[in-house]
Amino acid sequence: MAAPNTTRLSDPRPSIADALDGLFDPRTIAVVGASRTRGKLGQAVLALLKSNGYGGRIIPVNPSGGEIEGLPAVRSLQDIDGPIDVVVLATPVDVALDALETCTQLDVKMVVGVTSGFSEAGADGHDNETRLRQIMQNARFRLVGPNCEGVVRPATNLHLTFSPMFNGLRPGPVAMISQSGALAGLMALRLGERGVGINTIVSSGNETDLTAADLLDYLGSDPQTRVVLCYVEELRAGRRFAEVALRLTEAGKHVVVVKGGRSRAGSRAVQSHTGAMAGDDRVISAVFRETGIIRARESVAAVDAVTALAAGRRPAGNRVGIISVTGGLGVEMTDLAEGAGFEVPVLDEATQTALSRYVPFYGSVKNPVDLTGVVLANPTYVGRCLAAVAADPGVDIAVAIITFVPDQQFIEALAEAYDGTDKPVLIVWTGALRSNASGEALRDRAVPVYDSPARAASGLAALMPMQGEVA
Asked: Which of 42, 273, 336, 453 can pair with 90 through a Cys bridge, CB separation 3.0 to 4.6 Å?
């Protein structure tokens, strides 16, 4: 997975690509601040690395030595023989800076700085930030963070983080870059609940060294990545970020970005979070439109967008066919679709004839299709109607809306209809929590599933972002 080498010729550090190769598939990880005390960051990092099945060498670093989490601990980084792929700093800031300085004398490829107390801390963190930058001038390694939540890569069982929010993710086509660890956790959890697989998650924090642009370049170049989801508070290498995004979107990949600090008060808030300057929001929006970046107004809308894009199905046009077990939800979906610039055309006569076999006279077969409650007693009808609408030559995207599901056959019928078409299909399931059915058949296929028409509308807008933004 080779990304362009942006390292200066005089730079003693490894190239970004080489450093990230070592970060995402490390043979050796040293955890500075490893602790026996439950609740401390170093203890959490160590425990999650072990419990999630990481297969490489884990070295706890603690001045007391001994054994931690069943692993032999060293008293300092200097006691480790041989090269170290990754050093994790999970200590108070003064100890972390001492350890970082030690790393400049060792064969270290990458450092992940979980520790906080730098530029995000304002005047209180000024001296720490100054020392950090001085140390990095002599570094022979790359740095993720500081003030970050770590790195997760499900395919290699790498959970290099103190947060259990990332447990249980399945591998897949979505890469995530987030200056906020908590927002990364929220978005990853929501995507996982929908069956969307994750390639890599990087909580980039303050981005003192590696920036979102560097990570976008590397992760977007991975052939396994279909969508890159970013939460940024400042584009520290904005021009390069835009250039990389344009290259990726022209290559058929998707970049979805939530940009924090778009309001005046939000701009002040990001300064105390990652030490970032938010920038001119109007300029950022214009650049995003020009480069094909899909801008989501907030994190849930971003999850909705990525859910639709991760399925990998591209619409040929903007015509939407809608089936619903209730008229009101079908009307709302229609209004939202047309409000986003999509068409909801009257269905072909042959399609209407096919639908009439299953839809009673008091329903509707035109579009949106009102199946009525009769389908509750006939679980396979919903799948047959979805298949008929998806096969209509005047439909590019199909949406099926269900509420309470009394029988697992409903879900199996929808899954079968999904398998029978290559067009994008979105499912709105408003009553999943009250239903006598599991959505596993849909999650296994990564079918985009939403709990309301409004959430589905955000996914719909991402498939053909006419305004460059999803609500």
From this structure: 42
Measured in whole angstroms, how far is the alpha carbon of residue 58 from the centre of its chain?
A: 27
List, in sequence order, the alpha helices (H) in 251-298. Answer: 264-274, 281-291
pTM of the model: 0.91
Which residues share a beta bridge with 429? 402
CA distance 378 to 454: 27
Beta pairing, strands 150-153 & 158-161: antiparallel
Q: Extract the tokens encoding 269.
A: 């808030």
The CATH number covering residue 49 comes to: 3.40.50.720
142 plus 227 within the same structural domain: no
- Check whether residue 304 and residue 431 sit in a common domain: no
Contact between 274 and 206 (Cβ < 8 Å): yes
Structural domain of 411: 315-456
**How much is the pLDDT for 334?**
98
**Residues 462, 309: Cα–Cα separation, whole Å:** 7
Instruction: Mention every residue, 6+ apart, whose C-beta is less than 8 A from residue 174.
Output: 191, 196, 197, 198, 199, 225, 226, 227, 228, 229, 306, 310
Q: What is the pLDDT of residues 37-65, one digit of tens each?
A: 999 999 999 999 999 999 999 999 999 99
CA–CA gap between residue 347 and residue 381 (Å, rounded): 18
Burial of 284 (0-12, 13-18, 19+ CB in 10 A): buried
Domain count, the chain: 3
Structural domain contains residue 154: no
How far apart, in whole angstroms, are the C-alpha atoms of residue 243 and residue 32? 36
- 102 plus 36 within the same structural domain: yes
One domain, residues 333 and 352: yes
Other Cβ atoms closer than 10 A to 350 = 12
Shared-domain flag, residues 251 and 347: no
The CATH number of whichever domain residue 356 belongs to comes to 3.40.50.261
Relative orientation angle of helices 212-221 and 238-250, to the nearest 10 degrees: 20
The last residue of a domain, from among 310, 339, 370: 310
Q: Of the candidates 325, 347, 317, which has an alpha carbon nearest to the alpha carbon of residue 423?
A: 317
User: According to the model, what pLDDT value does residue 465 have?
Assistant: 75
Confirm whether 468 is domain-assigned: no
Give the model confidence (pLDDT) of 412-443 as tens digits. Answer: 999 999 999 999 999 999 999 999 899 999 99
Q: With beta carbons less than 8 A apart as the criterion, state whether 180 and 260 touch.
A: yes
Residue from 141, 91, 145 nearest 118 by CA: 145
* Strand, helix or coil for residue 161: strand
Residues 63-84: tens digit of each pLDDT? 999 999 999 999 999 999 999 9
